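Aim 2, interim progress: modelling of the zinc ion-bound target.
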Amino acid sequence: MGRRFCWMNATVWTFAIVLQGSVCSILAQDAPPPATRQPADPLDKFVYPLAGSVKTPDVTIDVSETPDVRPWAERAQKLAHAWWPMVAPLLATDRYSPPAEIKLVFKETIQPPAYAAGSTITIKAPWIRAHPDDFGMVIHEMTHIIQHYPREGKKPGWLVEGIADYIRWWRYEPETKRTPIDPDKASYRDSYRTTAWFLAWITGKYDRSLVRRLDESLRDGKYADDLFKESTGKTVDELWAEFTATLPKRM
Ligand SMILES: [Zn+2]
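Predicted structure of the complex, ligand included:
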C-alpha cells in the first residue's frame, strides 16, 4: 500500500487522503467488465456476514530506537496477532491475500500517534508513554493494513477512517466511553469516531452487512454513495438526518 493512513484523535487532528485516478483511466480500456452485484441476501439485515478466515501474519516489533517501550510493544504484538483473525472476517476479505508479516515499529519523533503504510505500523513512543491504555490504536492501524484498498476508484478518506474506527470502537472496545457527537455541528464526513458511530447506527437499524459491503466496494474500486441507498433504501444524507435526530442536543 503506497499511501499512509494514520490514526488520529478526531478532535485534534485532521487528515486528507488525495486520490489519484489517472493510472486507472489509462488502464480502463483493458479492464474487465464490472461484475454485476448480486442482490443482498435479505437475511443479511439480521446477521453479521463474515468472510472466510485468512492466514494470520507473523507480527514483529522493532523497539531499537525506543527500548523502554518494549513491554507495551510486546503486548501490542500479542494483541495484533490475536485480533487479526477476528477483524479480517468482519471485512470483505474472501479474495484478500494478507502480508506474511506485520511490523510494529516504534519511533521517538513522528507527528501522528501512529500510521500504517504497507504492512508496517509505526507508533510514536511518547504517545504510548502518555496513553498506555491506547491499544485500540493498534486495532485501528491493523484494520488499515487489512483494508489495503487499490489506488484506483473512489476512496473517501472519511469512510476509510470511519471503517477503521468502527472496527476499533464498536468491535474491539465497545465498552469504552466515546466523545458525544454534537448533532448541530457534526457531519458523517467528519471521519473517525463520528463516521464510525454513524456506520454502527445504520448497521444496527438497517443492515448488518453494511460495513462489509462498503469495504467490498472500496476494495473493488467501485464505491459510490448510492451504496447506502442500495443497502437501506435511503440516501446517506437522509440516513444522517435520521441518525442525528436520535442524538441529544448539546448545549
Ligand atoms: Zn486511520
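The mean pLDDT is 86. The pocket of zinc ion is lined by residues 5-7, 140, 144, 161, 164 (CB under 6 Å).
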